[in-house]
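testing teh design pipeline on a random one, pls ignore if ur not involved
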């Protein structure tokens, strides 16, 4: 996140459900064909607190568009992800910047989330081999190990998923040396358009230089059936929709 049995090698587990199916069900809860979200993000450190508001539009895990709406100094900054690439438009300099793969794990807008977290570039299904470690009365515990040459930085992820709704409960991220780097908690589950969806995510860095920091994402509104114009997921939209 390895007790490997013959069933596990065949793609099944001793508990009757393979890890890939659990992840598929979890992601189906979190994603729609089209999804619209209004989000408030608060980042707290021992020296400051910062609040940011944004709108997010997505089509599955392949395309996403984010527009910052608050604070005023950041208003109109937009982000686009499609076909494995990410761009940012900054109104103050009227420039579109392509974010290279080497920067995907860097901090997103000064928060404890990364660029990769915000646009969901890496894939649990494509980039990791998952193993079911535990199944009990309340949840599944899975271990994710990156596949060879996968474009990820984590050496291991341990994931807990509620076993009735398939809502994520907790993720622990470890570096290549097995050191715990950060913990992501999910809270406030509500049923929306047939999806059990956590309305709060709390990122807790564990490294010495960031320990004590907290970044909280609150989903103020979630719509799994919006009508999204396909032209939103183009580079032209970065500037056009920043206003």
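output:
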């Amino acid at each position: 996140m390895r007790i490997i049995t013959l069933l596990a090698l065949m793609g099944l587990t001793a508990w009757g459900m393979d890890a890939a199916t659990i992840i598929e069900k979890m992601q189906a809860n979190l994603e729609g064909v089209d999804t619209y979200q209004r989000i408030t993000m608060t980042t707290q450190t021992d020296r400051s607190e910062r609040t940011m508001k944004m709108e997010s539009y997505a089509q599955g895990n392949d395309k996403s568009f984010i527009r910052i709406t608050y604070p005023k100094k950041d208003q109109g900054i937009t982000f686009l992800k499609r076909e494995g690439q990410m761009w940012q438009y900054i109104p103050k300099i009227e420039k579109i910047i392509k974010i290279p793969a080497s920067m995907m794990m860097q901090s997103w807008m000064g928060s404890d989330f990364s660029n990769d977290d915000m646009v969901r570039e890496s894939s649990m299904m494509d980039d990791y081999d998952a193993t079911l470690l535990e199944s009990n009365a309340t949840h599944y515990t899975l271990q994710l190990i990156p596949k060879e040459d996968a474009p990820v930085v984590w050496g291991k992820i341990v994931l807990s998923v509620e076993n009735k709704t398939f809502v994520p409960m907790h993720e622990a991220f470890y570096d290549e040396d097995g050191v715990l780097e950060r913990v992501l908690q999910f809270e406030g589950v509500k049923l929306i358009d047939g999806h059990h969806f956590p309305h709060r995510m709390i990122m807790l860095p564990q490294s010495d230089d960031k320990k004590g920091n907290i970044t909280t994402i609150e989903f103020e509104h979630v719509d799994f059936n919006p009508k999204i114009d396909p032209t939103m997921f183009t580079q032209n939209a970065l500037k056009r929709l920043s206003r």
